[in-house]
Amino acid sequence: MSRIGKHPVSVPSGVDLQFSDKNVTAKGAKGVLSMTFVDDVTVEQDGDQVWVKPANDSKRAQQMWGMQRTLLSNLVEGVSTGFTKKLEIVGVGYRAAVQGKTLNLNLGFSHDINYDIPDGIEIKCPSPTAVEISGADKQRVGQVAAEIRSYRKPEPYKGKGVKYADEFIFRKEGKKK
């Protein structure tokens, strides 16, 4: 029995769900997203709640049940409120700036890094050392944040690099004389 799957997905006002066969399309204030359900689950809408249930008693149906419910929940939350990831840049001279559809990163290399902002993603720099990534698709927001972080991961001695705002960097002591 799935602990997550047995709870319904509540659909807030302003979000329109369209079901056709195994596809669902959600329209909301932040955009339009769609997904396809696997054959092992069934979806039923009851007013402003959507129930995801396993289609049979197979092991795969039990495995997919909670995941498909979470994906549907993320779809509904994404088109209604959206998702945000915050990055912090730590280091002397390290900074970021948005110029049009490009994020310009200066991370201590001999050259600047120009990251093209994908469609459906919005990037803001409230300060030169902070980057906010937001969008409707949770997976794409997380992927963009991971790609930006991969340019200069935080190192354990001084903590320099690009890190998530809520990330803790384990610090090492360094060499002793």
The separation of the N and C termini measures 58 Å
List the secondary-structure elements in sequence, H or E.
Answer: EEEEEEHEEEEEEHE
Order of strands in the sheet with the most strands? 11-12-7-13
Query: What's the story with the biggest beta sheet?
Result: 4 strands, antiparallel
Mean pLDDT: 94
Give me the number of helical elements: 2
Overall strand count: 13
What proportion of the residues is helical, as a percent range?
10-25%
What does the model show?
- By secondary structure, the protein is of the alpha+beta class.
- It is built from 2 helices and 13 strands.
- The protein has helices at 59-80, 138-150, and strands at 9-10, 16-20, 23-28, 31-36, 41-46, 49-54, 83-90, 95-99, 102-106, 113-116, 121-127, 130-135, 161-164.
- The chain has a 4-stranded antiparallel beta sheet, covered by helices on one side. It has a 3-stranded antiparallel beta sheet with strand order 1-6-5. The chain has a 3-stranded antiparallel beta sheet with strand order 2-3-4, with helices on one face.
- The chain is elongated and about 65 Å long.
Architecture blueprint of SSEs:
Elements: E1 9-10, E2 16-20, E3 23-28, E4 31-36, E5 41-46, E6 49-54, H1 59-80, E7 83-90, E8 95-99, E9 102-106, E10 113-116, E11 121-127, E12 130-135, H2 138-150, E13 161-164
Antiparallel strand pairs: 1-6, 2-3, 3-4, 5-6, 7-12, 7-13, 8-9, 9-10, 11-12
Quick structural summary:
With 177 residues, the chain is α+β, with helices and mostly antiparallel strands.
